[in-house]
Amino acid sequence: MRLEVLKNDCFYHIYNRGINGCVIFSNDDNKLFFLKKLKYFATNSFKVYAYCLMDNHFHLIIKVINETNITQQFSNMFNSYAKAYNKQESRTGSLFEKHFKRVQLKDEVYLKNLILYVHLNPFHHLNQDYKTFQFSSFASILSDKETNLPRLEVIDLFDNIENFMDCHLLKQEFLNEIYTLE
Fold first, then answer.
1. Residue 1 falls within a domain, yes or no?
2. 45, 85, 160, 161: which is deepest, by most CB within 10 A?
């Protein structure tokens, strides 16, 4: 399988899960540590537009701002997290599935739909309220607290904050209908 090369000024969906679907975040401290690593490694290389950390997988939507060694930086970040997690859990071996997955987002429609998908992950997988889920960028985008997320750029994709929230509600209603039909 040929892995997508990460290029400047392009958006990507970066995701992975625990090997064999195993847990990669045992507690909130693990998730906070992962976000701290993400912030550190993102500096000068990429911007995180959206994220969601579930117990056994994660999703990131990024825009590359400096492609130099970015794949290696992601690799270093995931390896660093895995080593710390393995030590904490007294485990050995791989934590993540082989290579982190990356898909280039070709247009704005795909980007907006993916932001909705990432934010609605807690609803989809855990039947939890995505608006209050602690380890998603949804609340950070709506908040007025300081963040490294390009909050205004994300809101501008949806034209305004009201439409940002409405699009999430409509997508959730759509998912509710699908689940009801199953």
1. no
2. 85
pLDDT digits (tens, 9 = 90+) for 153-171: 999 999 999 999 999 999 8
Give the number of C-alpha atoms closer than 13 A to the C-alpha of residue 116, restricted to the C-beta side: 21
d(CA 149, CA 105): 18
113 falls within a domain: yes
Spell out the long-range contacts of 112-116 with Cβ–Cβ below 8 A and sequence spacing 24 or more: 112/157, 112/158, 112/167, 114/13, 114/50, 114/61, 115/49, 115/50, 115/61, 115/154, 115/157, 116/167, 116/168, 116/171
**Can you give the residue range of the structural domain that contains 175?**
11-181
Residue 38, Cβ neighbours under 10 Å: how many? 21
Q: Virtual CA dihedral for 148, 157, 125, 41, nearest 10 degrees?
A: -30
Residue 112: CATH number of its domain: 3.30.70.1290
In-domain check, residue 5: no
